[in-house]
């Protein structure tokens, strides 16, 4: 089997201070979940994976979210 066509997802561009990395990186759902959980742990938050999601309530208080 031969490759029919080879192309880039994005055209090559030199890095700039505004956009130092032009190449997109694709990560799976499992890895993004781990990244999110580790970030939330910095704020003393945790996610219980086995619990079903029931609702999200956002109060009018800025930066307050009850899950």
Q: Can you give the helix content as a percent range?
A: 10-25%
Q: Can you give the mean pLDDT? A: 80
Structural class of the helix and strand makeup? mainly alpha
N-to-C SSE string, H for helix and E for strand? HEE
Q: Report the oligomer.
A: single chain
Rg:
20 Å
End-to-end span in angstroms? 51 Å
Shape: elongated
Please describe the biggest sheet, giving its number of strands, its sense, and whether it closes into a barrel. 2 strands, antiparallel
Number of strands: 2
Count of helical regions: 1
Ranges where pLDDT stays below 50 over 5 or more residues in a row are: none
Beta-strand content: 5-15%
How do the strands of the widest beta sheet line up side by side? 1-2
Helix and strand arrangement:
Elements: H1 29-41, E1 57-58, E2 65-66
Antiparallel strand pairs: 1-2
What's the short version?
This protein is mainly alpha-helical and 67 residues long. Helix content is 19%, strand content 6%.
Keywords:
67 residues, mainly alpha, 1 helix, elongated
Describe the protein.
With 67 residues, this protein is mainly alpha-helical. The chain has one helix at 29-41; strands at 57-58, 65-66. The protein has a two-stranded antiparallel ribbon. It is elongated.
């Amino acid at each position: 089997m031969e490759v029919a066509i080879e192309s880039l997802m994005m055209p090559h561009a030199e890095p700039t201070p505004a956009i130092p990395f032009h190449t997109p990186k694709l990560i799976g759902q499992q890895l993004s979940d781990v990244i999110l959980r580790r970030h939330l742990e910095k704020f003393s938050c945790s996610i219980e994976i086995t619990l079903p999601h029931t609702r999200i309530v956002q109060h009018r208080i800025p930066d307050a979210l009850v899950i």
